[in-house]
Specification:
- Helices cover about 40% and strands about 15% of the residues.
- By secondary structure, it is an alpha/beta fold.
- The strands form two sheets. Strands 3-2-1-4-7-8-9-10 form an eight-stranded mixed β-sheet, sandwiched between helices.
- α4 links the parallel β2 and β3.
- α7 crosses α11.
- The chain is globular, with a radius of gyration of 18 Å.
- The chain starts with a helix and ends with a helix.
- The mean pLDDT is about 95.
- The structure holds NADP nicotinamide-adenine-dinucleotide phosphate (NAP).
- NADP nicotinamide-adenine-dinucleotide phosphate binds next to α3.
Length: about 300
């Protein structure tokens, strides 16, 4: 099979590797829908907001500060709401939840997109390793805080990564969530992305309405600010190889848009998607008892911080 045919191949959904967020949403009218997206100041979150706003959705765009979100997104729609949701700061996440709740309107989709990757040295929030806290705990607090605002057929999308396959042997190192016992930048990123997947599966099991869904996705590999902590040599190699081996940002935002709004994903829950189609996660990402244990631990952390 040629490389070109992989780029052009489409799956059961009718979309594939080369589909863009614009392709996915081309025929969809999102007027009357409210969609919250995290991490919207750059990369895939920014493109997701741009395209979903273009299709008529009312967007609640969140980021570390309302100002950075406003600077990046406000030109996309006059109805766009910019909110601070600094995921490593529980007070900021709680304030965001309270503001969204006050508005009283139902949320049709929550797209948990924000993330950080492979920080070279150990950093922590509230005593927990920063990637685990930002990528998983912050989103856990946001989503569980807003569940009673999720519409009857609302969708939760966790932007994970195929990197979840490189998580530690037992999946989640419950005895090393601070990262202090041993810190490995990529393994800790992978652990946080596995946590996104496990969270989606356990949430899917717990959702009250049969029409509500929770899924995790892998967007592909795309050159964005996510790689800012990477070794400069690797960054250079990726820049050279980019047109051959990486998706564009427009393609990278496609899967989260598909799972967030496309009728083809309606009623599909507890799954992992890649290239806009259901895909298979790692065996440990399907471990129901691990997912349940992570939920309980996350609840405990969310109450304590
Ligand atoms: N790019 C890829 O190849 C790739 C592959 C697999 C998975 N992903 C996933 O895709 C998602 C989007 O990443 P991207 O590639 O678009 O990277 P990006 O351009 O770096 O975007 C990440 C976004 O998350 C925000 N963010 C980071 N820390 C935050 C925090 N503590 N609180 C709130 N927002 C925070 C960033 O805001 P600031 O700019 O203000 O820091 C930015 O808006 C991530 O979850 C990532 O793990 C990406």
């Amino acid at each position: 099979m040629s490389v070109l045919s992989i780029f052009k191949r489409k799956g059961l959904s009718g979309f594939g590797y080369g589909s863009t967020a614009e392709d996915i949403t081309g025929d969809i009218d999102l007027k009357g829908q409210t969609i919250l997206v995290t991490g919207t100041s750059s990369g895939l979150g920014l493109e997701t907001v741009r395209v979903l706003a273009r299709r008529g959705a009312k967007i609640i765009a969140t980021g570390r500060t309302a100002d950075t979100v406003r600077a990046a997104c406000s030109s996309f729609s006059p109805t766009l709401i910019s909110l601070a949701c600094e995921l490593s700061d529980p007070a900021s996440v709680r304030a965001c939840v309270a503001t969204v709740k006050k508005s009283g309107e139902p949320l049709n989709a929550l797209i948990c997109n924000a993330g950080i990757m492979a920080l070279p040295t150990l950093q922590q929030a509230c005593g927990y390793e920063l990637q685990f806290f930002t990528n998983h705990i912050g989103h856990f607090m946001l989503v569980t805080g807003l569940l009673d605002r999720l519409s009857e057929n609302g969708r939760v999308v966790l932007v994970s990564s195929d990197a979840h396959r490189a998580a530690p042997k037992n999946g989640i190192e419950f005895d090393n969530l601070s990262g202090a016992r041993s810190y490995r930048p990529w393994a800790m990123y992978a652990q946080s992305k596995l946590a996104n997947l496990l969270f989606a599966r356990e949430l899917a099991r717990r959702l009250k309405s049969k029409k509500q869904t929770a899924n995790a996705i892998h967007p592909g590999v795309i050159k964005t600010n996510l790689g800012r902590s990477m070794n400069p040599v690797i960054q250079f190699a990726l820049a050279v190889a980019e047109p051959l081996v990486l998706k564009t940002v427009a393609q990278g935002a496609a899967t989260q848009c598909y799972v967030g709004v496309h009728p083809g994903a309606s009623g599909v829950s507890g799954e992992y998607f890649a290239d806009c189609n259901v895909a298979e996660g790692s065996p440990i990402s399907r471990d129901a008892s691990l997912a349940s244990r992570l939920w309980e631990e996350s609840e405990r952390i969310a109450m304590a911080v």
